Amino acid sequence: MKRFILLLVMFIAACNGQDTLTPPGSTPPVDSVTSTSAPPTIPLHTETPGPAPATETPAGATTFPDPNAYAWQPLVTGLQRPVDLQADGSGRLFVIEKVGRIRIIENNQLLGAPFLDISDRVGSDSNEQGLLGLAFHPQYGGNGRFFVNYTDTSGNTVIARFQVTSDPNAADPASEVKLLDVDQPFPNHNGGVLAFGPDGYLYAGLGDGGSAGDPMGNAQKTGTLLGKILRLDVDSAEPYAVPADNPFGNEIWAYGLRNPWRLSFDKSTGDLYIGDVGQGQWEEIDFLAAGSPGGANFGWDHREGAHDFEGGGPAGMIDPVAEYSHPEGGCSVTGGYVYRGSLPEWNGVYLYGDYCTGMIWGLIRTDNGWQTQLLFDLDVTITSFGQDGFGELYLVSDNGDILRLSQQ
After folding, report:
1. Is the omega angle on the peptide bond into residue 301 within 30 degrees of 0, that is, cis?
2. How wide is the angle at C-alpha 204 spanned by C-alphas 249 and 169, nearest 5°?
3. Is this structure's pTM higher than 0.85?
4. Domains parsed from the chain with CATH numbers
5. Which residues, 6 or more positions from 213, have their beta carbon under 8 angstroms from its beta carbon?
6. C-alpha span between 164 and 136 (Å, rounded)
7. Which segments within 40-124 are labelled E, that is strand?
8. pLDDT tens, 194-240?
């Protein structure tokens, strides 16, 4: 019944000319996911600051695990529209609430006091606005610096740096140093993801500015930061420098994106995976191998997925390595992570999902090319995935739940 209602709403919105592909998505029905009992205890790793230990298994998977032997088990509940989960190397997990708070999960418990509360400067009225991304500096254990991506009360994107206090469970909201302010012409397609690459640079995903069909053509313009993956050097200058090998002499690293809703680097290989939300038909996963030069063009709005949208475009546009259509069971892709945890059958499998349906696919690269397979069909709305310092994977639901991939 839930999916019938969802499809009906999407059909009505499409007939009215609205853009329905809006991660983190419309507010889900109240009965989508509820929890009336305490979640089972799931042990968290105790981490030490610094890089995760190297995996002892091969970097790539050649087959998919049997999903029936595994489940996404509840870790904590009761969050307010969480949209991101990150780890700082201490064993704690940090969850973003869209309204402008960062919460801490420690010893399987959600702490009452927020790590950071900047709801006074975050604009989150529109569904795709709010505090959207978090990245801890690779040397966070020594310098206490972390970075966030949010929309301000005027609806514009802010990428900023903050500092932890002497209390490791509390950051200083007055320590904000703004790196970038980016005007947003519409309230949707803000992107929001942040991640440090293996090169030590900070990567940021920004959407094309919103509305539908990229009416301003931002994604293909290398003079605007909208519809791009940005790459910043946050260590060589204050507040940042443009890396010398960025391809266009500005912050842009890659372009031709509609709304990158989560990107991640494989902890073992350094490969980059990007979930890019489609327009009306196709959702896609894009890929750049470690060491790829800047300047990749992923095709929007000439292409939607591997298909013509407006047509034409320059040579060399990069098609996705995976895609799915809306009739297959989706409306808005949520990019994920390559699993590098304690379950050897999953090692090297990239997991991604769909916001509206709760479907989760696996993606692997074999001698026969890229292979994808539907692995889970959950009754949750997937706003994000997360990964701890030991490569374990978590699912973030708009319903307020955090789940962890575990053996049955």
Report:
1. yes
2. 135
3. yes
4. 2-407 (2.120.10.30)
5. 19, 279, 301, 309, 310
6. 11
7. 70-76, 82-87, 93-97, 101-106, 109-110, 116-117
8. 999 999 999 999 999 999 999 999 999 999 999 999 999 999 999 99
